[in-house]
């Protein structure tokens, strides 16, 4: 009976959020969860999302009927263009199939489930994740029965990319492995390959006939430029890879709780491509039906309203620049405060890293000490959410870091 069910550990991130909420100290700072905050540490509803929300609320024809199994077609079509680029050969040649999912998590899950069921059946399969990666990758892949290993990614010495380690491990991986890649703004490190490094990574993946699986949760949020943040995926498509993409709208639209996301499967150019994609789509539809029947409507409607209207789209881009711009300002401010204080160590990685997160290099012991002494909450691996910093607390945080590093 259920009496035999063992206690599972609490999710570390959501546990951290709960501890922050319980803390009654007025100085407390939340650098844990990966959600954007404005300069007053408040959640920010993107103005363009508010506008789309108003449009939807005033639409007399809007109802609460089921969406199709693959989701809202205007949304999935616009999502393809967003991630692959409007003139993508893959779209023109009908080599892409897309399903709306429960945000990025659901897209990663649907992709993993599909691969578990159909990819290289009958042979030993192995997925490779960056070390470190978004912790949920491990759970999602193990829940569908796909074994995994990791490839080196973060160099503790340079606090940048361990490019040689990454490439040589991907090179040595068994042929046909699934290689999970963060398209931009790597979580948790904030470290991305350069375009030249991406080209080399693509070369090795091709040589070993690996299958690239892109996780894109921060397009536009990282650099403020959608094409730039989508560059790696578009390059792989240009190179003719068969691949899949898990796309999230949580961060770049601030639609966290609405769970808007999309899964894309792209096959290589061939005379057979269109029919391959049709068969893949038919199987994905069955998986989706058994998992969620059909995806939630509201978040996808909001994103779709914006993505399909040129004026709203331009306004969204401005909102993205505002979020990424504030985060970049906080990177500069934190680095210069630490350098002003003469805090031991180098701090250039704070501004070299990109996106929501920075891997500070603080040890678990230092993280716990800062939590206890200064009421600053960050994950044990020393990751901070840059969005939790603002002009009111960045100096306070820098001083707390300075203190613990000197102890
Ligand atoms: N992948 C990565 C790398 C992420 O950082 C996130 C967000 N934390 C996700 C996927 C998916 O998040 P969500 O399900 O909220 O879209």
Write the layout of secondary structure elements.
Layout: H1 12-22, E1 29-30, H2 47-57, H3 73-84, H4 89-92, E2 96-102, H5 103-118, E3 127-131, H6 136-143, E4 148-152, H7 163-172, E5 178-182, H8 195-207, E6 211-216, H9 226-229, H10 231-238, E7 243-248, E8 260-266, H11 273-291, H12 298-307, H13 310-341, H14 348-352, E9 357-359, H15 364-374, E10 376-377, E11 383-385, H16 394-406
Parallel strand pairs: 1-10, 3-4, 3-5, 5-6, 6-7
Antiparallel strand pairs: 2-8, 7-8, 9-11
What this model shows, in words?
- The protein is an alpha/beta fold and 407 residues long.
- It folds into two domains: 9-45 and 323-406, Aspartate Aminotransferase, domain 1; 73-308, Aspartate Aminotransferase, domain 2 (3-Layer(aba) Sandwich), CATH 3.40.640.10.
- The chain is 46% helix and 13% strand.
- The protein is built from 16 helices and eleven strands.
- The chain has helices at residues 12-22, 47-57, 73-84, 89-92, 103-118, 136-143, 163-172, 195-207, 226-229, 231-238, 273-291, 298-307, 310-341, 348-352, 364-374, 394-406; strands at 29-30, 96-102, 127-131, 148-152, 178-182, 211-216, 243-248, 260-266, 357-359, 376-377, 383-385.
- The strands form three sheets. It has a seven-stranded mixed sheet with strand order 2-8-7-6-5-3-4.
- Strand 5, helix 8 (195-207) and strand 6 (211-216) form a beta-alpha-beta unit.
- The longest helix has 32 residues, at 310-341.
- It is globular.
- The mean pLDDT is 96.
- It binds 4'-deoxy-4'-aminopyridoxal-5'-phosphate (PMP).
- The site of 4'-deoxy-4'-aminopyridoxal-5'-phosphate (PMP) has 14 residues, from helix 5.
- This is Aspartate aminotransferase.
- Residues 313-340 form a coiled coil.
- One of its GO terms (biological process) is aspartate biosynthetic process.
- Its EC number is 2.6.1.1.
- InterPro entries: Aminotransferase_I/II_large, Asp_trans, NHTrfase_class1_PyrdxlP-BS, PyrdxlP-dep_Trfase, PyrdxlP-dep_Trfase_major, PyrdxlP-dep_Trfase_small.
